[in-house]
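Per your request, structure below.
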C-alpha cells in the first residue's frame, strides 16, 4: 500500500499541451489525493524542472513524481514506484520515431525483461518522463555538488538540480541533457538509479509507442485482406 499521496507532488512540465490520455491519468491521480502541478511558460526545460523541484521541496513535499505531458500511465504505476523503496526510480518507455529506450543502461546490460518477468533494474541514467525522486536525493545533491541557490533577487529562487552537464566519454565529451545530468549528480552523490521494468507506459507521438517499438518495427504487408465483422453474424 502506497504512503499518503499528499506527501507526493506530481510535476508535469507542459510545452504546448497535455495529451488527452495523459490528462486522464493526471485527473485520476488528483481524485486519489495527489497534488498535480501542470506548469507552462518555460523556454528551457532544465530551468523548468529546477524551478518546479525547488518550489515543491519548499512547500514540504517529500516525493517528487515527474510525468511528461505525452506519457500514458495508470495510477497503479505511480504507486508501484512509490512502493519500490528506492530513492530514484523510473518507468521505461520508448523514444518516438526511433528504435531506442528513453533510459541509458549500465554497461554490460544485454537484456531487459519487461512486463511480468520484469522488476527493479539498476540503470545509468533515467529520462524524467516518468520518474519518482525523494527529498533526500535533492538534499544530498546540494551538499555533494555544492549547488548554489540562484535567482534570489526574484520572487522565487531555485537550485539548479537539472543544469546540463559535460562528462568525459572515452576520448571525448558527453553533453548530458537535464534529466541525465540530474541522474549523474545523484549517482555521484551516492544514489543508484533504478527502473521498474514491470510498468508498461505509452509515449504519444504519431501513434502510442510501447516497449516493443524500441526493439522492432511494426509489421507491414505488401497485400492484406481485411475481414469485415458483422453484428448480424
Amino acid at each position: 500500500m502506497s504512503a499518503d499521496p499528499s506527501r507526493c507532488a506530481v510535476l508535469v512540465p507542459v510545452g504546448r499541451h497535455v495529451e488527452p490520455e495523459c490528462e486522464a491519468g493526471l485527473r485520476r491521480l488528483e481524485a486519489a489525493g495527489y497534488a498535480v502541478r501542470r506548469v507552462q511558460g518555460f523556454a528551457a526545460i532544465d530551468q523548468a524542472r529546477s524551478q518546479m523541484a525547488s518550489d515543491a521541496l519548499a512547500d514540504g513535499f517529500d516525493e517528487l513524481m515527474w510525468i511528461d505531458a505525452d506519457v500514458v500511465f495508470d495510477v497503479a504505476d505511480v504507486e508501484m514506484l512509490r512502493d519500490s523503496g528506492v530513492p530514484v526510480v523510473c518507468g521505461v518507455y520508448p523514444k518516438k520515431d526511433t528504435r531506442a529506450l528513453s533510459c541509458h543502461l549500465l554497461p554490460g546490460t544485454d537484456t531487459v525483461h519487461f512486463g511480468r518477468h520484469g522488476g527493479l533494474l539498476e540503470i545509468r541514467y533515467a529520462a524524467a518522463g516518468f520518474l519518482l525522486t525523494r527529498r533526500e536525493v535533492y538534499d544530498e545533491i546540494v551538499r555533494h555538488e555544492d549547488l548554489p541557490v540562484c535567482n534570489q533577487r526574484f520572487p522565487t529562487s531555485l537550485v539548479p538540480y537539472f543544469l546540463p552537464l559535460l562528462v568525459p566519454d572515452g576520448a571525448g565529451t558527453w553533453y548530458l541533457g537535464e534529466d541525465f545530468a540530474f541522474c549523474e549528480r545523484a549517482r555521484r552523490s551516492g544514489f543508484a538509479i533504478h527502473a521498474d521494468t514491470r510498468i508498461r507506459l505509452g509515449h504519444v507521438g504519431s501513434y502510442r509507442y510501447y516497449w516493443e517499438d524500441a526493439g522492432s518495427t511494426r509489421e507491414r504487408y505488401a497485400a492484406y485482406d481485411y475481414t469485415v465483422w458483422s453484428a448480424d453474424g
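Confidence is low (pLDDT under 50) at residues 223-231.

Regards,
D.
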